[in-house]
Design goal:
Number of strands: 0
Largest sheet: none
Shape: rod-shaped
Radius of gyration: 32 Å
Number of helices: 6
Helix content: over 70%
Strand content: under 5%
């Protein structure tokens, strides 16, 4: 019988302690959540500050890649008067593959849409070159191949290289 008042006192103190702890938790919880959100935002900001130069460089290199594989630029850069159409085709295809392999890691820092456009321009350029060389006689010169490719591109309503560059620039503008 003497034990009953002690148990009642222990129960009162336990309930009061639980109430104090619960009240403190509900008062401090919003502050802790706000502090956590602030720390997360600061972390994201520091990551963004570190990756922004890399992203800018990736978009810059993508535009450079598109310009370098543009047949109007590439055929002038690679064309020698002594090449046959097949030799020039092989040289151009290897140049495109090398350029692409050199820039493939840039996709990490670019949007999927922008990188898909870069990849599509590469594939289309290789297809244009392959179709052009197939349509020429076996004894055609590199100049014949160049002329055929450039005529095909001039007949297009919109240059795929200008479109790709515009999309890449638009994606870059969306970053800012």
């Amino acid at each position: 019988m003497v034990l009953y008042p002690y148990l009642l006192d222990i129960l009162k103190y336990a309930i009061a302690g639980f109430a104090v702890v619960s009240l403190t938790y509900y008062i401090i919880k919003p502050h802790l959540e706000r502090t956590e959100r602030i720390q997360l935002l600061e972390f994201k900001k520091s990551i963004s500050n570190q990756t922004l130069p890399l992203r800018l460089q990736a978009y810059e290199r993508a535009v450079l890649f598109v310009e370098r594989i543009n047949p109007a630029n590439m055929l002038i850069r690679l064309n020698g008067p002594s090449y046959t159409a097949a030799e020039l085709h092989s040289l151009v295809v290897n140049e495109i593959r090398d350029e692409y392999q050199h820039n493939i890691t840039q996709q990490i820092y670019m949007s999927s849409r922008a990188w898909a456009m870069v990849r599509r321009v590469k594939d289309d350029t290789m297809s244009i070159m392959t179709n052009a060389v197939k349509g020429l006689p076996d004894d055609s010169s590199g100049m014949d191949l160049s002329r055929t490719v450039l005529m095909h591109l001039s007949q297009l309503e919109d240059s795929p290289y200008d479109i790709a560059t515009s999309i890449i620039k638009k994606e870059l503008e969306d970053i800012f």
